[in-house]
Write a structure and sequence with these properties.
Layout: E1 6-8, H1 9-21, H2 26-33, E2 44-46, H3 47-61, H4 66-72, H5 82-87, H6 92-106, E3 110-116, E4 120-127, H7 136-154, E5 160-164, H8 173-180, E6 184-185, E7 191-196, H9 197-201, H10 209-227, H11 233-244, H12 251-258, H13 262-271, H14 276-294, H15 299-305, H16 311-322, H17 326-333
Parallel strand pairs: 5-6
Antiparallel strand pairs: 1-2, 3-4, 4-7, 5-7
């Protein structure tokens, strides 16, 4: 059991790359989102982190069509190892079924549902939000990515009959027309694509039954490994980082999120040479150093945000971490 819903770094890179093509430096994007730069070395991100990244990209680019552009920039690496299985699928319909099966390897942030009809099939996307509400750009990127990747698999443009979104229109009508080439409706009951059945059932050019079995076995192994994740120091550290902005996380909260007892949590961390309190102290230190150096908050506000009942307790902890008071450390490290 994992601590939180997560997303692959391939999908994170899709957002970063799209923003970079519009002239936004990735580090500036992370800073605006309040995400530490070290998060780029993680294997997966918490769902709320990528939601913050989407909102940051929306703010930094000022581009109402950002989601559509991110989706059209999707490449095989964007969807992790699932792309290998899709390249060996017999039809697009089979490819969608594989995405449904291995969605978690890409992201826990949503799932696809197929609603077949006489002429076409609705591919409905159901988002799974974390604590933060998704940016509508995320939904537009997902549907745009479906069209882009389908074209990449088939070698031809996807025949979309109709598109609808649950949110209001974000950009100019011609932007949607360019991507989907069909009527697009907004403020509907769900977000999805109505795709012609003949396109979904047309044999794909790269179908290979032998490779399909190999790729599916590998995807199954990766999914089993992801589903079977136990307590890891890196995973718990990431969870603590996401929780600090909400409230001071407790050992009981982490154990409950993992579905284990506090004693089991302590034992598994001890086997990795760590304790819950030492990890929490490390994460608080990282947050404190970044916040104090940035100089956007008062020291009292930083202390409160990090869960210290009194500012004096925070000052003592900061002196223990750095060997100097926070005000002096800020002065010497401002702008770093």
């Amino acid at each position: 059991m994992t601590l939180d819903a997560t997303v692959s770094m391939g999908w994170v890179s899709t957002v970063l790359d799209a923003a970079q093509r519009l002239g936004i430096d990735p580090q500036n994007l992370l800073m605006t989102a309040g995400i530490p730069s070290g998060a780029l070395s993680w294997e997966r991100w918490p769902i709320d982190y990528i939601t913050r990244l989407w909102h940051s990209a929306e703010q930094c680019t000022g581009d109402s069509g950002f989601g559509l552009k991110a989706g059209t920039g999707v490449r095989p690496a964007s969807i992790d190892i699932v792309s290998f299985a899709l390249q060996s699928a017999a039809t697009l319909r089979e490819a969608v079924i594989l995405v449904q099966k291995y969605q978690r390897l890409i992201s826990d942030g949503g799932r696809f549902q197929m609603l077949p009809g006489n002429r076409g099939t609705w591919l409905v996307y159901h988002p799974r939000q974390g604590r933060l509400a998704f940016s509508p750009h995320q939904l537009e990127a997902v549907l745009s990515a479906v069209v882009t990747f389908s074209g990449w698999l088939s070698g031809d443009s996807l025949n979309v009959l109709r598109v609808q979104f649950s949110h209001s229109r974000l950009g100019r009508a011609e932007g949607y027309q360019r991507v989907f080439n069909c009527p697009v409706e907004f403020e509907q009951a769900f977000s999805g694509l109505l795709v012609a059945n003949k396109d979904l059932d047309e044999p794909l050019p790269n179908v290979d039954a032998r490779l399909a079995k190999v790729h599916e076995r590998y995807s199954q192994d990766r999914l089993a490994a992801l589903d079977g994740e136990l307590v890891s120091v890196q995973g718990l550290r990431q969870w603590l980082q996401t929780q600090l902005s909400q409230t001071l996380p407790r050992r009981a909260d982490a154990a409950r999120a993992l579905g284990v007892s506090q004693r089991t949590l302590a034992r598994r961390l001890q086997a990795q040479g760590q304790t819950f309190n030492s990890l929490l102290d490390d994460v608080r230190r990282e947050w404190a150093l970044q916040a104090v150096a940035e100089g956007k908050q008062s020291l009292a506000d930083i202390a409160q945000a990090l869960g210290y009942a009194e500012a004096s307790t925070f000052y003592r902890a900061f002196h223990r971490w750095t060997g100097m008071p926070p005000a002096r450390w800020r002065k010497e490290n401002a702008g770093r």
